[in-house]
Amino acid sequence: MRVNIPTVLLTRKGYSLVSFNFTKTIIKRYHGIPFLNLYQKVTGHPISDDIMPTLKRRHPNLDRISQEQIEYVLQILNKFGITALEACHNPHVFSMNVISMENYGDILKECGFIKIKPEYIIRYHTIVRSRTIAYLKKEGLLRQDLNLEEVLQNCFLDWPKNQKPLNEFSDSTTSILTVRTSVLEKYLQLRLSVTKDEFEKFCKNYLPLRHRPMCDISEALNIAQNEIKFDVDSIRRNGFIISSDPTNTKLILENVKTLAGYDIREAIRIEPAILKNNYNSLLEIKNTLQAYGISEEAQRHCLRAYCMCPQTIQERLEQLKDLKEYQILSTNPRVLSLVVHKRKMMSRLEKIQSAKKQCYSLNHLVSSTKAFNNYINSFGSKVWSKDIAVLISSCIQAKKVKNHESSATNKENEQSKLRKAIVQQLKRHKYWLHSSLYIINENLQYLNEIFYGDVIVNNCQILLYPLTEIKQYLEFFLMKRNHNKAKNIVVELDGGYNNLNYSDLTDDQILSLVLYEIEKRYHFSGDGIWSKQDGVKTESPNLSQQMMHH
Hints:
The protein contains 30 helices and four strands. The chain is mainly α and 550 residues long. The strands form two sheets. Strands 1-2 form a two-stranded antiparallel sheet. The two termini are 52 Å apart.
C-alpha cells in the first residue's frame, strides 16, 4: 500500500532553515504470511481486503506455508517454465504435495505438452483421465501430429526399436492415462516378464505407479538391478520398487552407509520397504535405536523398524522401557518386533493376564492371530524355549565377558554356544518350559550378584524354582562356608551333612546343594516349580498401571 504523506524536512544551511515537501511511501507487509508477501512482491500490489476471505476459504492452508516451502515450490515450477507471477495467480500449487506436483509436471512434459501451466498441474487428473487426446490437441495443449504412444515408448532408452509394437489408439476415444498404462505394461513385460495379472495388482496396490514419470521408473529399475543388485523375482514380489523415487534411493545409498551392521544395499535387499523411507528418517531411527541400547543383532532380526516413522519408534521405546515384560525381553534378539507390534503386544498381554496365564513368550506376543488363539485357549501355559535360553545367556554373559573385548561375530558365536548349553541343562527338568519368565528373571537378578556365569549355567535348573526357597538354602550354605552366624535361618538337613567341611565348598557345589535340597522336598519329581506359581502375577504390575504415566 502506498500512502502519500506531506512531510516537512528541515535541513541546516548556514544559519537558515530550508523546508522541502516530499511524498513518503509506506508498503503494507504481511509479516506472518509468506505467501501474501510473495504476492505483493511479484505483482506490485497487495491482495485486497475484499478478496482475502474468498482466498482463505478456497486455500485454508496458505497462511501455514513457510518461506522455505514457497521457495521450494517456485524452484520446481521454474523447471517447467512457470514464473512466480503465474504461481501467485494459481495459489493452489503451494498447497500441493511437492513430490506429486513435480511428478505431474514431468509427466505432462513427457507427453509432449507444448506449454505447461500451473492450472494444468492443478487439474492433472482431469487432464490425463477425463480428456481425450483429440480434445487436448484441439485446445492446443498437444501438437496435432503427436503420436503419444510412440513418444512415451521413446522415454525408455533400453527398449529395442524392433520390439515397439503400436496399438494405434484412436485420439478421439483415448485418454493420456490409457496410453501411459498400456506403454508401461508392455515395458515391464519386456524388462521384468511381468504378467497381466501382476501388472493389474501393481496398479491397484501401488497407486503412484501409474502417475510416476517414465524416466523415474526406468531409473528406479536401473538402480535396483545394477546398484542394489535386486534380482527380477525380488522386484516382481515387491512391486513398490518399480514406483520408488530414484532421487530418494540415491540419497539413501549416498548418506546411509550401514544399517544394523549390514551394508545399506544388503539391508535393502533383505527389507526392500526401506526404500519407502527417506534417508534422514533412516539415520534418525538408527540413532534412536542406538540410544536405547538396541543391539545390531536385534536390529538385524527386525529391519522392518527402519520402515517406520522415527517419531513412532522414539515414542514406543519411551513407553515400553518401563514395562516389566519389555524389560525382561529387552535382551532378546527379536525385541524390536515388540516395538513394531506394540499395540498387538499390549492387547495380548492384557488377554494373557485376564486368562491367568502365568507363562508367556515373545513369540506369543507377536505371532499370528491363529497361533496366539491356540495358546490362549489351550490348557496350561508354556514358555518359548529360545526366550528362556536368551534371557539366561544374556544376563550372565555380561558377567562372563566383562573384562575382555571380542568382535561382534565372536560374541554372537559365544552366545549361541551358551544358549545350547543352557537348553541341554534345562531339558533335564521335565517342567522346564512351564516356569514363568518373571521367576527366571528374578532369580537371575539375585544370583548374578553372587555368582559368575559358568556356575549358574552348570546349575541353571535352579532358576526354575521360587526365589524364596533358593534364598533360604543359599543363605544357609553361604553362612556355613563363611562361618557367619545365622540370622533367623532355619534349615533342616539330614545327617549326611554332619561330617561335611563347609569351608571347602565351591560356588558350584553350593548351588548344586541348594538345588538338591529343593528338589528333595518334592521327591525329585520337579513339582517344586509349582509351589509359588500362584504368586507370579503379583510380580508384574497391572499393564494399565505400568503405562498410566504415558
